[in-house]
Amino acid sequence: MYILAPSLLGADFTLLRQQILAVEEAGAEYLHLDVMDGRFVPNISFGMPVIASIRRASELIFDVHMMVREPERYISDLGKAGADIITVHQEACAHLDWTVRQIKEAGMKAGVAINPATPVSALDCILEQADMILVMTVNPGFGGQQRILYTLDKVRELRRILDMQNIEADIEVDGGVTADNAWEFLDAGANVLAAGTSVFKGDAGKNTREFLNICKEYEKKQKSERNKCL
Ligand code: DX5
Ligand code: ZN
Description:
Blueprint: E1 3-6, H1 16-25, E2 30-36, H2 48-55, E3 61-67, H3 75-81, E4 85-89, H4 96-105, E5 109-114, E6 132-136, H5 151-164, E7 170-174, H6 182-188, E8 192-195, H7 197-200, H8 204-229
Parallel strand pairs: 1-8, 2-3, 3-4, 4-5, 5-6, 6-7, 7-8
Helix pairs in contact: 1-8, 2-3, 5-6, 6-8
The protein binds D-xylitol-5-phosphate and zinc ion (ZN).
């Protein structure tokens, strides 16, 4: 299943409700929420009060990307605020195994993210427990950057490992994802596309539909290739 996760960081914050409704009505299933602490990344974004408020305005699956040091401090509050998936950075957790368990015990799905310069092998021990692996395709902290090309190789490597080990985790890519390069990310093995600027700049509903069509086309291609093999 291929999923678009519009990243709210790319939205016009004076129009939050409208922008969320636009992507929801256009068929998006996830809403990607970037929480930044000004320590793990140089930027500060938003936190629990904003997430709790928009929870009341949306049925979307809240995909919370914690760009925060020691994110375990916020798991319970994020659950109360309405997170469905919490993704923490491997680089930000002293006890990643423990943190992933805590997220799942709190009834949410657990994702683990790696920065561009962190090798896929850093996740070897956690792959079986994670519901999602987020491969950062830019250095985290800011929207509107160009993707870093070598990160595509990491997505390919990760997909190969997950397939070999029969692990069903999702692979999310985040940063510089556009309608023009989405196909390449899917082809590399990602199945969740987080996209901020390219969804919210201009007509968010139209952009969402365009991304969803690409996902549908890609799924069709995959199915027909599978049928050829049978
Ligand atoms: C960046 C964030 C991204 C960001 C992506 O650190 O994690 O989710 O919103 O923005 P774009 O799609 O504009 O690169
Ligand atoms: Zn993100």
